[in-house]
Amino acid sequence: MKKIKLLASALLLIFGISCNQQTNSDKEPRVEKEVKKSTKNTTDALTVWHDEPKNRILSWVNTVTDSTSSDFIPVNDRIAVFDNDGTLWPEQPVPNQAQFMLDYLKKNYPNKPEWKNDSIVSAAVEGNFEPLKKAGMKGLIDLVNKTHSERTEEDFTQSVKQWIDTTKSKKYNKLYKEVLYLPMLQLLDYLRAHEFKTFIVSGGGADFMRVFTEEAYGIPPYQVIGSYGEVKYEVIDGTPKLSKVSGDIFVDDKTGKPESIHRFIGKKPVFCGGNSDGDQAMMQYTSSSNYKTMCVILHHTDSEREYAYDTKTLSGHLETALEEAKEKDWLVVDMKNDFKQIFSFQK
After folding, report:
1. Which residue range forms the structural domain that includes residue 195?
2. In whole angstroms, how far apart are CA 59 and each of 112, 139, 149?
3. At what angle do helices 153-166 and 96-108 cross, to 10 degrees?
4. What are 200-225's pLDDT values in tens digits?
């Protein structure tokens, strides 16, 4: 029950609900067309990064991949982990999975007669979240179950695929899967060119992200770690089926991130990328490695090309991690000043 409350608390923040309320793929992996893929030749690497953060990353990679260096990291231990929301793609004005949930409600509302008797769902599809706020945690958990649970693996995957392939961000008028941080795509490519294995470790739903991460980032589903709920296996008419069902939920955020890394990767990372206090524990865990490590925090400072936020936000709060970055010399990337270009469609 504690884990369910943690997830609900996170989503309550997204919808502006007080946590203190009383409650009663067949596609080929991504190919970047506009910017050459990073190679071991550093002149081709991180071309949309400004020199200071770029040189620091290049220097670290060159050092830890030099077999003659005392800081050499063997290939088998080159584990790099990245948060997703706010680190590889935007998380404002609400995380994309929250938007997916709302869009699913709106699309399926006409075909769900039972939802019409649900005042919270009926209000939400009209953009009114006051009933949801009043219902608090109980109402939100019920909403999540309606959109994510009691569905087969195939149905949920197809639903996410259809959404990600057709739905556009209102701010950019581009498909959500196209609104990706170009500097971070270059960084992923550059690390892989130096034989790092890249993982996503995110608070977002694992089943949601696994539908598109290989196409978007070149990260296969089995290297995606996220929040997850219960599933049920059955053989129906001779066909094996997995279904998402209501039940306990593991939240892959804050301390949940190093816990998940231990469970699913089994080795401490040596590189970590994130953007919020939710990634702080993962960075602490990475920094505790016996190897020379690097942690990178994206600080969202560009209100024109993207969004500017840190302490005053419902998603992606950045405060204590920023302080610890000074103590541990983590690389803080000022997105306004350190990125020449944020998205491939921007010049």
Report:
1. 42-94+169-226+248-338
2. 56, 50, 46
3. 110
4. 999 999 999 999 999 999 999 999 99
**What's the pLDDT score for residue 40?**
61
**17-46: average pLDDT:** 49
Q: Does residue 235 sit within a domain?
A: no
Residue appearing with tokens 């080159």: 78
Asked if 208 and 59 sit in the same domain, the reply is yes
Which pLDDT score is estimated for 38?
39
Dist. CA 277–CA 253, nearest whole Å: 9
Neighbours of 304 (CB within 10 A): 9
Contact assessment for residue 123 and residue 316, using Cβ atoms and an 8 Å cutoff: no
Please indicate, yes or no, whether residues 47 and 192 belong to a single structural domain of this protein: yes
Task: Clarify whether residues 85 and 208 are in a common domain.
Answer: yes
Peptide bond before residue 221 is cis, with ω within 30 degrees of 0: no
Query: Which of 212, 181, 221 has the alpha carbon at shortest distance from 32?
Result: 181
Q: Which of 273, 330, 332, 342 is nearest to 302 (CA)?
A: 342
Distance of CA 294 to CAs 25, 113, 198, 199, 284, Å? 32, 52, 14, 15, 11
Beta strand pairing status for 168-169 and 151-152? unpaired
Residue with the two structure tokens 């419902």 = 314
Does residue 183 sit in the same domain as residue 269? yes
Instruction: Please identify which residue in the block is written with the tokens 């609400």.
Output: 94
Structure tokens at 336: 């306004």
108/219 same-domain check = no
pTM equals 0.88
Instruction: Report the DSSP beta bridge partners of residue 5.
Output: none
